[in-house]
Automatic annotation (TrEMBL):
Keywords: Cytoplasm, Hydrolase, RNA-binding, tRNA-binding. NCBIfam families: D-aminoacyl-tRNA deacylase. Pfam families: Tyr_Deacylase. HAMAP family: Deacylase_Dtd. A motif (Gly-cisPro motif, important for rejection of L-amino acids) lies at residues 137-138. GO terms for molecular function: D-aminoacyl-tRNA deacylase activity. SUPFAM superfamilies: DTD-like. This is D-aminoacyl-tRNA deacylase. It is found in: Cytoplasm. Belongs to the DTD family. It catalyses: a D-aminoacyl-tRNA + H2O = a tRNA + a D-alpha-amino acid + H(+); glycyl-tRNA(Ala) + H2O = tRNA(Ala) + glycine + H(+). It comes from Spongiibacter thalassae.
Amino acid sequence: MKALLQRVRHARVEVEGRCVGEIEQGLLVFLGVEQGDNEAGLERLLERVLNYRVFADEAGRMNLSVRDIAGGVLLVSQFTLAADTRKGRRPGFSTAAEPAVAEALYQRGVAMLNAHHSPVATGEFGADMQISLLNDGPVTFLLEQ
């Protein structure tokens, strides 16, 4: 399982021209689910996301988490994070979880985030999404479970 975090000033997800999720300052989190991933791993990963210190404190050091700043979390499923890119000119997706498994874990992740943090917004699983954001820094991290 992979989570690509982007520290943002704001982020928005649209599907067919309608906004399905939007946050102000916080984290845009792209989630890629791979074969063998499970709920326990998801819980550990999301706990890291909520407590990962990527926001500046008074001294300008990355010492604050999204929880500390009461920022938003926008969770978006991203199948392509599970791609095998080690060789060739085209990504392979043999390591990605089956769509039904990935969707179930994604929806469980949404529920977990909502139970432990606010505000939380989401994309739409399996949809063709257009995402606009203002990356703050830029600051981007890849967390792997």
